[in-house]
Write a structure and sequence with these properties.
The protein has helices at 3-6, 50-55, 83-97, 109-120, 141-145, 150-165, 178-191, 195-200, 203-207, 212-222, 249-256, 273-276, 278-295; strands at residues 10-15, 21-27, 35-39, 63-67, 102-107, 125-131, 236-241, 262-267. By secondary structure, it is of the alpha/beta class. It has an eight-stranded mixed sheet, sandwiched between helices. Strand 1 and strand 2 form a beta hairpin.
Length: 296
């Protein structure tokens, strides 16, 4: 198979019974190979994985899938969102593409989501790739300080959903190109190491690209406890950062060690591993996934 054929990603849309339209991209060949399915983080979309899809060597031996979680990117949705809906959406994509199982991964909120998916769909989870997971007990700084506002944010999100149902919402939302933003950010960081924090941690910036209710629900879901990790039997790779912007590095790994089959690897980054250390992240994922494929 030629390199051009291996690079041929299909962008598709799945219609869900409640009217939601879930956008996703897939690189696959027949017969099917192991599937790596990637979710994005809070206030993000599947362009988070554009650079990874372009550069990863996994294309020669794996099928790859990335999707816009309901409420983000091409999956604009102004109703209720959360771990259960996102998990059911991914399971429906696997059904539509005829995959029984997948290695499920994600960064930040997407890593927490992957753990919830594994708990909800254990038989469909062949493995986990957890990039900067954010256990509740390890959250720090402003993220921890605002946690007491979760009931108010739920109420605000519900009120906004009512207004949206009445037709009061922004008619057009641009899709943020995170690959382009990452490249621009790396240049800025060389001049100012804190530039990335000001940009990627800005709610006002994120809200330009997604429904307000979905953003608030993202935040509430980030404060949701992880499922019982000792029950998640799928093998897992966890890539944790050394920075302390949103989590206490000393506390992140402690709950993850409850996973029965976890490989832990630290990466020098403030928080945004795919932006700050894309090559190191990619190589770690490739090594682990190839090892998993060889053992299966």
């Amino acid at each position: 198979m030629s390199a051009a054929e291996l690079m041929d990603e299909q962008i598709r849309t799945l219609e869900r019974p409640d009217g939601a339209r879930i956008g996703y991209g897939i690189i696959r060949v027949e017969p099917q190979r192991p599937l790596l399915a990637l979710a994005h983080g809070m206030g993000s979309n599947m362009t988070r994985w554009s650079e990874f899809f372009e550069q990863t060597a996994l294309k020669t031996s794996w099928d790859l899938l990335r999707f816009d979680m309901r409420g983000h990117g091409r999956s604009i949705w102004r109703g209720r969102v959360g771990m259960e809906a996102w998990s059911d959406d991914l399971a429906a994509i696997l059904d539509a593409e005829r995959y029984e199982r997948a290695v499920v991964g994600g960064n930040c909120l997407g890593a927490n989501f992957a753990l919830h998916f594994a708990h909800r769909y254990p038989r469909r989870t062949a493995g986990l790739v957890l990039i900067e997971p954010m256990p509740l007990e390890a959250q720090a700084g402003l993220l921890r300080s605002l946690r007491g506002l979760a009931p108010l944010l739920r109420l605000a999100a519900g009120s906004i959903r009512v207004l949206n149902a009445l037709g009061l919402h922004r008619r057009r939302l641009p899709i943020l190109d995170l690959e382009a933003l990452d490249k621009a950010s790396r240049g800025a960081v060389r001049q100012d190491p804190q530039a990335i924090s000001r940009l990627y941690a800005s709610p006002l910036f994120d809200l330009r690209y997604m429904p307000s209710a979905a953003y608030l629900q993202d935040l509430v879901e980030l404060w949701r406890p992880l499922p019982p990790l000792e029950t998640v039997v799928a093998p897992a790779l966890a890539l944790t950062s050394t920075g302390a912007h949103f989590t206490d590095p000393a506390l992140v790994e402690q709950p993850l060690r409850a996973l029965p089959r976890v490989t832990l690897e630290r990466i020098a980054a403030l928080h945004w591993i795919p932006t700050e250390q894309p090559q190191q992240m990619r190589e770690a994922i490739e090594r682990w996934c190839e090892g998993l494929r060889e053992r299966s």
